[in-house]
Specification:
Elements: H1 11-15, H2 19-32, H3 43-55, E1 59-63, H4 66-76, E2 84-88, H5 94-100, E3 105-109, H6 120-126, E4 131-134, H7 146-155, E5 160-164, E6 172-173, E7 176-177, E8 185-189, E9 203-207, H8 210-220, H9 244-253, H10 257-277, E10 299-302, H11 306-315, H12 345-353, E11 354-357, H13 365-380
Parallel strand pairs: 2-3, 2-4, 4-5, 5-8
Antiparallel strand pairs: 1-9, 6-7, 8-9, 10-11
Helix pairs in contact: 2-9, 3-9, 4-5, 4-8
Length: 382
């Protein structure tokens, strides 16, 4: 099992062909000296227009992170301290932290046994008279069951629904793209390793609601409303603007998103064939490919003896990762909410079984074969 390492993510392979365009985009901002904002013709406004079109939403607001995108969306939907917000128990910590940091209370619901997205039945049970919103996550790039979740929201008095699209840009279900699936807003992350990544932190909110758009723009700019007088602050706001250089770089990458997405999907399909051909189907549980269009931010399988397999792959120079080893309801930072093991069994089981294999546009066939051979070696040796 020799040879060079197989990285979990390879940004160089994706960015090397467009480095010239990326440098030119940065130089354009340097010459303009418009590093923040840039006006209606600047890269931030142009990226917002392009993102809204790509998602199929009327509005997009560029921000400095996906975490802020969730928080500001919830604020724009009227969520206030003490309000309960349903979130899945199995996802990245930022989803629940974005709720807690505005003083609202994250309420953890379990995830679906197959998709690992928020389970509508568990969300229904988690709702109380104090519930005001829900944040479903399109985990790993697979769209959540938005029709069922929106029905739950409607049944409980019209809960505000904010999609966490951090891992799922360009995913689709029922003819709609994530971020425009009937929710009040969609929250995106452009962290460098995301399917559409900046060269630093970045995020955005998409919405069809003009008031949500206006309020997110107000909150991101220290509480100054768009079109208002300078230094007159309508609300206590945040400093959450996306800078012009990151917007310019995202404008270079966005036209490639579709081809990169299809490349990820092709790599995922090939993993499925290789795993089946290696006789590993009894040991390796591959992710569902639907319903909807999975965009494979991560190719995550579920296995017994996960931690042993992790060490085995690392010893063979194969990049892998666990997303995520501790479900949110058992995180130390949420201990005061009183959750105990057993409350969200599907989330707890997933946390013990999931492992991400290398999957990125341009991943060589030989590297995929090497990954699967190493997995086969592990299970044959047990």
């Amino acid at each position: 099992m020799g040879g060079t390492a197989v990285p979990l993510v390879n940004l160089a392979a994706q960015e090397e062909p467009i480095l010239g365009e990326m440098r030119a985009a940065i130089e354009g901002v340097l010459r303009s000296r418009a590093y923040v904002g840039g006006g209606p013709d600047g890269p931030v406004a142009r990226f917002e227009a392009a993102l809204a079109q790509a998602v199929g939403a009327r509005h997009a607001v560029a921000l400095n992170s996906g975490t802020d995108a969730i928080s500001l969306s919830l604020l724009a939907c009227g969520i206030r301290p003490g309000d309960e917000v349903i979130v899945p128990a199995f996802t990245y910590n930022a989803t629940a932290a974005a709720v807690a940091r505005i003083g609202a209370v994250p309420v953890f619901a379990d995830v679906h046994a197959e998709s690992l997205d928020l389970d509508p039945g568990s969300a229904e049970v988690a709702a109380t008279p104090m519930t005001r919103a829900m944040v479903p996550v399109h985990l790993y790039g697979l769209p959540a069951d938005m029709p069922a979740l929106l029905a739950v929201a409607k049944a409980h008095g019209g809960l505000a629904v904010v999609e966490d699209v951090a891992q799922a840009i360009a995913s689709e279900r029922g003819g709609k793209r994530a971020g425009a699936m009937g929710s009040r807003a969609g929250a995106f992350s452009f962290y460098p390793t995301k399917n559409l990544g900046a060269c630093g932190d970045g995020g955005a909110v998409t919405t069809d609601d003009p008031e949500v758009d206006r309020l997110v723009r107000t909150y991101r700019n220290q509480g100054e409303p768009p079109g208002g007088k300078r230094y007159v602050h309508e609300r206590v706001g945040w400093n959450s603007r996306l800078d012009s250089i990151q917007a310019a770089l995202l404008l270079v990458k966005l036209p490639r998103l579709e081809s990169w997405t299809e490349a990820r999907r092709e790599r995922a399909a090939r993993y499925r064939r290789l795993i089946a051909d290696a006789g590993l189907s009894g040991d390796v549980r591959v992710p569902p490919d639907g319903p909807g269009r999975h965009v494979y931010h991560l190719f995550v399988v579920r296995v017994p003896h996960r931690d042993d397999l992790l060490r085995h792959l690392e010893s063979r120079g194969i990049g892998c990762g666990v997303y995520y080893p501790v479900p949110l309801h058992l995180q130390p930072c949420f201990r005061d909410l009183g959750y105990r093991p057993g409350r969200c069994p599907q989330a707890e089981r997933a946390a013990a079984e999931v492992i991400a294999l290398p999957c990125w546009p341009g991943l060589p066939d030989a590297d995929q074969e090497r990954v699967v051979a190493a997995v086969r070696e592990f299970f044959r040796g047990r």
